[in-house]
């Protein structure tokens, strides 16, 4: 019940991604950092060593490095669906930064909120939706209800009479 | 204070939708609040009045912000759609005629006489994307038409037309363009088709249309795009044209036929063969819906039809240059 | 015992498959410890780890329990080997923050964890079925 | 919403009408089966919050069957909320006053006790005999199978079969066989007794 109070959404993608060709949803990445302060040290490390490789591996992302003096560093990701995701990366090492970048790259930009269903389909039924006449017994047009001959209870076991009669029939056929 | 904050948020959010100064939105008191705080009402009203006075916030285009490099963005865009396009071409495709004209005008005003008239004319026509838009539109329309004809061979011409119009409508193209990230670059993506055609060939251009425009058909009801009106009359005409027996409707089943909420299941037979069945609240509705169902199966647009084949590529001569019915020539994994 | 209804069913299914007249196919696949009924163009959200194939990769789902068209359904015992389900990894992300809270009253015991799972979204691209062998005696 | 979707929704949640013959059927087992149909549990679309049950017509409720001890042991309690207003009736008494009451009470108690129950009971139509109104019978599109086989009485067998049935021994000619009307006489006697007590 507590899940009701938090925002939720259904599973979706931008522009039916993955049906035609895959489009990387991360459009633009801005790395904001400071040149002086200690908390931007990991980011500065990353910009010196890993940023060019990242940009080369992901040519579909426009990467910017922006100096913000005496501000804590952050990764600002802009997605094709128009949403922005900001990750503060103060005091983070270069290796960890790369993981966060990977996370931003593989995302679609939708909000990280509760998914109501783990599946989305455009064709919920292929053999036809259920109706009361699905798999219903077909009666001839002149059939009238009630008809007790067709709807007698199933006999799953033989009654004592049935057994006796069967035995009797057997014995009479043997004697014949 | 929390109440005041929520109300302020509400006011800001709805501000642009309610331009009338005389009718501020009603400020609701939260349910369960013990008192009605007059000061907060007055405070919010005053805030609202001031907000209106300031006027709408100016929207800064993304390209006017600091972290913006047009070359980088264009390069990223070409990689995003997995095409190898020249930067000059993309820039031209993204330049609207009105923009290029105004630039030319500006050039004329600034440097005036030193530029020759012919050069100015060249600047006028070459920088815009009008021609590209036109040829791209033609190519996309042709390909979409052929694609639909391959996927729905039995659909009548008007149906093909309405699906085409649905896909090539300005709203749909703007939607596609927006989600490919070209909002800050341009407003229309059809010139791109022409550009890809010039630089990469027709097959890639068609693949672009297939992957980004035709995929918009997914999840749409074909019979909502192409509404089938007076189904029974159509069905009679179609069956007569095909040389089949005339449709005969039969009541298959019913639920509570003597009640106000009855449901009838009607089947339509032609030459002793069930060609469509549907439920309905009355016999007339059920018959009409059954005819609709039969028509959908005859047109090949029933719900459980084969899905679109987005992996298929169409060879150039097979689909684009022949006047005959297009055929599926090759299939390869994208 | 041969019941007349099962006789020749495989032939009729094979006929539909060879003529490609079975319409849209659906399948029940087993992935990430869960079973999903899927058809082409579906989206699935599965809990994986970060080592799952990268986004944009095409994957083939091996465990297919059931496949069906408009007129037939084939159930595996337990798996079917004549079906090929292909999918594309569309997104790898984290779930929303789930609260794990442990509290014992009057004892000063209080623990709070915010948990985020690794999630992967895949898109089913195609379901292909090949002809079956008639193993009904 | 397109018309196609609308009629599909209408058909999926359409209520069908069932008929059930309670002749020689145990009311307790019958109630279990009828409740499935009244609550809609026989449908794949069933959900406890959705009111998707069907209509059920029950005929021949007068001819339900219970073991002898049940007719005496099954009790119906009622209290008028006034002092001394408590009364208990045995099954045979209840059944004689209202031949549909035992089945109705049993179904009512078998249904889940929630706010839907009143509506579900309104979709139950009980008839002591086979005289269902014509308009109601027209709605019926299916029948519920009986819960137990109806025993055959001696009269149901043709005379030839009765005559040819193997016998262990023959009655002596001077032996006087009971005519089988003893129960009828007892019943008449009880009826008279009850009517007398009512008059008093």
TrEMBL record, chain A:
Presence of keyword Endoplasmic reticulum: no
Subcellular locations according to the entry: Mitochondrion
InterPro entries per record: Ribosomal_mL43 (IPR039927), Ribosomal_mL43/mS25/NADH_DH (IPR007741), Thioredoxin-like_sf (IPR036249)
Chief place of localization: mitochondrion
GO molecular function: structural constituent of ribosome
Gene3D superfamilies registered for this protein in UniProt: Glutaredoxin
GO BP annotation list: mitochondrial translation
Entry GO CC: mitochondrial large ribosomal subunit
Pfam families noted in UniProt: L51_S25_CI-B8
Stretch forming the signal peptide: none
Keywords: Mitochondrion, Ribonucleoprotein, Ribosomal protein
Family, as annotated: Belongs to the mitochondrion-specific ribosomal protein mL43 family.
Protein known as: Large ribosomal subunit protein mL43
TrEMBL record, chain B:
Keywords attached to this entry: Mitochondrion, Ribonucleoprotein, Ribosomal protein, Transit peptide
GO MF entries: double-stranded RNA binding; ribonuclease III activity
Keyword Ribonucleoprotein: yes
Location(s), subcellular: Mitochondrion
Large ribosomal subunit protein mL44 dsRNA binding domain location: 226-316
Sequence ranges assigned to domain Large ribosomal subunit protein mL44 endonuclease in this UniProt record: 69-188
GO terms under biological process: RNA processing
Record's GO cellular component terms: mitochondrion; ribonucleoprotein complex; ribosome
Pfam family, one: DSRM_MRPL44
Top-rank taxon, per record: Eukaryota
Family: Belongs to the ribonuclease III family. Mitochondrion-specific ribosomal protein mL44 subfamily.
Protein name, entry field: Large ribosomal subunit protein mL44
Automatic annotation (TrEMBL), chain C:
Domain of life: Eukaryota
Pfam families per record: Ribosomal_L21p
GO molecular function, a single term: RNA binding
UniProt keywords, alphabetically: Ribonucleoprotein, Ribosomal protein
GO BP terms: translation
A cellular component annotation (GO) from this entry: mitochondrial large ribosomal subunit
Electron transport in keyword set: no
Family: Belongs to the bacterial ribosomal protein bL21 family.
Protein name: Large ribosomal subunit protein bL21m
Organism: Bugula neritina
Phylogenetic placement of the source organism: Eukaryota, Metazoa, Spiralia, Lophotrochozoa, Bryozoa
From TrEMBL, chain D:
Keyword Aminoacyl-tRNA synthetase: no
Alphabetical keyword list: Ribonucleoprotein, Ribosomal protein
GO molecular function, one term: mRNA binding
GO-annotated cellular components: mitochondrial large ribosomal subunit
GO biological process, one term: translation
Pfam family name, one: Ribosomal_L13
CDD domains, alphabetized: Ribosomal_L13
Family: Belongs to the universal ribosomal protein uL13 family.
UniProt cross-references to HAMAP family, sorted A to Z: Ribosomal_uL13
Record's protein name: MRPL13
Species of provenance: Bugula neritina
